[in-house]
Amino acid sequence: MRSPHLRFPMRLPAIAAAVALLLSLFAPPAAASGAGARLEGRVVGPDSAPLAGASVLLDGAPRARTDAAGRFALDVAPAAHRLEIRLAGYRTLRRELAAEDLAGELRIVLEPAARFAGEIVVEALRAAERAPYAVSEITPERLETLDYGQEMPRLLAATPSIAAYSESGLAVGGGYSYFTLRGLSQARINMTFDGVPLNDPEESAVYFANFGGFTGALSRVQVQRGVGTSSVGAPSYG
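Structure (tokenized):
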């Protein structure tokens, strides 16, 4: 008579799969956590004002932009990373982050790309009130009265010793227009704007057709008849 023995309907691979399933069900939840980390930061300027719209790059790849408060947040792996912050008008910031730097909010200060050491003073070549030569001054109020859209030679025609004309013959001086000072052509008249010479280096002349709305950029005009204070270039008789 045969002795009775147990029979297992499942094969060994099926048993192993069932055991693995049971182990995964009873595994603690903490084992699945910690797979990622949170990188948070706030980007500000030197005055601590928030900087919005700054590009945030992580390991060379764009990941986010700062909001109106200058803040950003990223889901990252808990490891070392290379952080880069870019914003137009500011110097790019690059920082190596260790895993422990991911805890808490980073405060990132961007420096402006350029700074002025101090105020800029613009000085023009102007004659003093008691200069020993003839000087005519066109004040801002007079400029506003004389300006009706014409080119500069036509506007200067109201100044003593100046005669103006244009190639088109129009009163507004459309196209190329010219003027003479005491009979001297524009190639012999020294013109400066805030002390910077305007005369063309080749022909020593100034073509006002190349300047749009030139009168609108002026606050005062001084016409010196004679050698005057001219100190730049060969044409120094006006």
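Helices lie at 12-25, 140-146, 152-156. Residues 82 and 200 are 53 Å apart (CA to CA).
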